[in-house]
Amino acid sequence: MIGFRVAENWRGLEKSRKLLDKEGTLLSYTVVHSPPAGKENTVPFYLGQVSLEDKITHIMEIVDAEKEKIKKGARVRTCLRRIHVQGRKGLIGYGIKCRVTG
Amino acid sequence: MAGIVGYGAYIPFYRIKAEEIAKTWGKEAGAVKKGLAMEEKSVAAADEDTVTMSVEASLNALKRAGIDRKKIGAVYSGSESKVYAVKPNATIIGEMLDIGNNYTAADLEFACKAGTAGLQAALAMVKAGMIEYGLAIGADTAQAKPGDILEYTASSGAAAFIVGNKKEEIIAEFEGTASVSSDTPDFWRRNLQPYPEHGERFTGEPAYFRHVVGTTKALMEQLKLKVEDIDHMVFHTPNGKFPMKAGKMLGFPEKKTAANLLVSEIGNTYSGASLLVLTHVLDNAKPGERIVVTSFGSGAGSDAFSFKVTDSITRKQKNAPATRLYADRKRYVDYASYAKMRGVF
Amino acid sequence: MAAIVAIGITRFGDRWDKDELGLAEEVLENLKREEGNAVKEAEEIFLANTSYPLIRKNMSLQQEVAEKTGISCIHTFHEECSGSIALQNAAEAVDSGRIYKALVIGTDKMSDLTSAEIQQLSAFSLKEEWQKNSLSLAAAYALLEKSYLERYKKKPEEMAALAVKAHAQGSRNSNAQFQNVLSKEQVNQSALVAEPIRQLECADWCDGAVAMFVVSDKEAESYKKKIYLKEHVQVVSGSPLDKENTFGSAIRKAAGMVKTKIEDIDVFEMHEVFSFGEVMCAEGLGCCRSGEGLQWIGKNNEKVNPGGGMKACGYVPAANGLRQAAEIVLQLRNAAGERQIKNAKTGLSVNLNGTGEKAAINIFSVKK
Description:
The complex is a heterotrimer of chains A (about 100), B (about 350) and C (about 375).
Chain A: H1 6-19, E1 23-32, E2 45-52, E3 57-62, E4 75-85, E5 92-100
Antiparallel strand pairs in A: 1-2, 1-4, 2-3, 4-5
Chain B: E1 3-10, E2 14-17, H1 18-24, H2 29-36, E3 40-43, H3 50-65, E4 72-78, H4 89-96, E5 104-108, H5 114-127, E6 133-141, E7 156-164, E8 172-184, E9 187-188, E10 197-198, H6 204-222, E11 232-235, H7 242-249, H8 254-257, H9 263-266, H10 273-284, E12 290-294, E13 299-309, H11 313-316, H12 323-328, E14 331-332, H13 335-341
Parallel strand pairs in B: 2-14, 4-5, 4-6, 11-12
Antiparallel strand pairs in B: 1-7, 1-8, 2-3, 6-7, 8-13, 9-10, 12-13
Helix pairs in contact in B: 1-2, 3-4, 6-7
Chain C: E1 3-9, H1 20-34, H2 38-41, E2 44-48, H3 51-56, H4 61-69, E3 72-76, H5 82-95, E4 101-108, H6 115-122, H7 128-132, H8 137-151, H9 160-170, H10 184-189, E5 192-194, E6 197-198, E7 208-215, H11 217-220, E8 227-236, H12 250-257, E9 267-269, H13 276-285, H14 293-299, H15 309-313, H16 317-332, E10 346-353, E11 358-365
Parallel strand pairs in C: 2-3, 2-4, 9-10
Antiparallel strand pairs in C: 1-7, 1-8, 4-7, 5-6, 8-11, 10-11
Helix pairs in contact in C: 1-4, 5-16, 13-14
């Protein structure tokens, strides 16, 4: 499990900020049933392969998922969500997920 | 001159119906719904919190404001469900909005009026010329004790306002504010307790109505306003009954307080409540209209504001998603999913 | 040209009774049955293992093996390609004349890891950024398979044929962990892992060990059973999930670097941690055109993963490359019994890290 160390969390802020509220296209997606550690409560969830304005391929969860709208070529927009919480005492890591628009 | 330059809303995607909650606790849905005038409420997903919601509401506000975000000189985040007990929401939000580092920030707390307290402070600072722009947010992922009556209404949402002092940018001019504060033990939460306690019926007359009606009257007196001068009367919305009753008590016809019924669809978003209704009103407001907003925070206190809508509003309203869009974008969950999402287990 | 003159293999599965050192000792005993002097004569041990450092955050397994055998031991960690690359390193060492005889051991203890740790290990080659966003190895393969199915207008149920084939072949291999035959329905009705991948399309990460005795060209002349490591390559590339990866696919690059012609390969061992991986390998190696992997494998059933592959044999990450090599060695020695491919003279094994971020190809032949 990728953890969030203090400095790592801090360095990650700019990366998240740069990718926030950006538009993109869904290249492929899957529904994950077998969760990675820490995500047992949230399965099944959608994972998408997304191409954003920066022309880089990103992998991120698709949230507020409406099944009929999720398909290759769908337009998406990124948003900020919690991606990691270190137990009850540690830092909360925020990151980028996306929603299908229109 | 000071006023609202941009505004934005955010309501989560998920909803739970009053019937579903009633069924879980063996209550009659019909009676509850009628008593509270509530249909359903919004539910934040497990990966949402007041920071994520505030960020989206603020991004919407920025889109409407159309200003240089680096000139925002203050960020006030009002919430009673801030993410860390110690570490401010305001700066996590500020960082994500890329506003630079030259701003003052603080998290405010005063039950459901934390957001308007921040709005008051931001307005004062721009009016005094201390800052060019200020960002005030009211947001909550309200904690409701399972089985308690408040479970039908405690919901999640955020509303953000950017205020400034340049005439051509202002869409709602700030005319004045009045506040009433007291020590009223209607609703409280002790440190480390997961859920609040409330004084049941005491939260009505001695708390909500006394403050809301009293503060609105105080503002109207201060600005010499009559009911006829006000086009939209926005109150804090703990449920669908209270704001409509307050409106009647003050002599407002129902059409002027109808927007408050947003609560029956999305629930009481606590620090976001009156501010979300304000965004809803602004979405449809016409130049020249006057809006009065009176919040209420248990403990207790109220902030009342008067805003006059300007011509500039028509070119800014559509620059971000309307509150109605967020209200209509929804999916229902059952009680088990609701409990998982809100960490009841 | 280095040659493999003896091999040893343990039972694959849950080996609760032994740790990595125990399995290494066991497999050396098995190898000594083919060549009694192997341990006495080996000058260096190339040890492939992923579990020990992961569990103990410590690299002293190599010292433990060295102490037990009296031979210097070097630990090789290349995630899922560890076995193949340890063999490559041994071959290069004897080819260079630095040493003459080496032992290669690949062993892993997956049963000592929690399932969360196995997930972690499986994702070792996936970009950290993507893992933070919940990408697992299964999800990565699922994303690729989904794109593939859409592009080539195939149905996910068609992939079931691969697991069925693997078990059919495994049933003829007494060393395979799973010897039961599977039906298409069983595969297609098994639980979803990450759509469209199903539980019965996933190889089982387990315990085991494989060992090889590798000697130099000249030394090989005095051994009866010798199979040469004719060619080998290892390539690291960008991820196939990265649309802007201009560096190209590791497996295609590796295949391009190999001189032996694909048509001259008689037996293939392909990496299928998920069934779809076999298709990726077949197409990546250039056995057939893109989109025709399933058909090609169907037509060449007998010569692809003849022992049952990772799916039926069990997947021991650090030993896998060596298990593949061992199967090819048996085929080329004409000692594969029921599953013998007629006239097998040249064999190819390919290992992938992650979804193909790294590829290691070894080519074996009867003649130099």
